[in-house]
Write a structure and sequence with these properties.
The protein has helices at 4-32, 36-80, 85-100, 105-118, 123-134, 137-152, 156-187. By secondary structure, the chain is mostly helical.
Length: 188
């Protein structure tokens, strides 16, 4: 099954290749009359597409982390309201769909998770598969923590609250690091 991410990734890659090819061809034609420098510009094109792809992946991960943090808050509220963990994920999906819209990648992942739960897949396994498809470290960690808590019968509400707090701190730290790096780059 092709997800929204694979379509988006393909669309961004194709757009990047065509945009960079157009830039290289126009620049070569205008300034270099298709000489040896055009070959160097084609090499630049592949480097630029790779850099654009890397930036798109980083942006996707940041957006997934933000929507995952919001999903944890919704999940915690649903568990506090007395829903089962399985039903809580469905409630979190509905709430996240209201916040971000149905096209959000985390909402799509939660749709797939709820579908798997409806097909009889254990929640722990469905969470691990969601973490693998998202490829975000925080979701991997949460799926491990959630599996342990569910098996041992721990206080799920507190654990999800702590996990959300840790995620918030990590996001703030990353934001501060990026701000410091940006400030240092602007100095030079």
């Amino acid at each position: 099954m092709r997800t929204k991410t694979s379509r988006t990734y393909l669309k961004e890659t194709v757009f990047g290749v065509f945009a960079e090819t157009g830039i290289v061809l126009v620049t070569s034609w205008l300034f270099f009359d298709f000489s040896f420098i055009s070959f160097l510009l084609f090499i630049y094109m592949f480097i630029a597409v790779k850099a654009r792809r890397k930036a798109a992946v980083e942006k996707r991960k940041r957006l997934l982390e933000i929507s995952f943090k919001d999903m944890l808050g919704l999940l915690r509220n649903a568990i506090s309201a007395g829903y089962s963990p399985e039903r809580s994920f469905e409630e979190a999906k509905n709430g996240l769909g209201g916040l971000y819209g149905e096209e959000n990648e985390m909402v799509c992942c939660l749709n797939e998770l709820v579908y798997k739960l409806g097909m009889g897949c254990p929640l722990e396994k469905a969470l691990k598969e969601m973490a693998r498809s998202c490829n975000v470290e925080d979701i991997y960690s949460f799926s491990d923590v959630f599996s342990v808590i569910k098996k041992t019968g721990g206080k799920m509400n507190e654990a999800i609250g702590r996990t959300a707090g840790v995620l918030q701190q990590k996001m703030e730290l990353r934001r501060e690091i990026h701000a410091q790096i940006g400030a240092m780059e602007n100095e030079f």
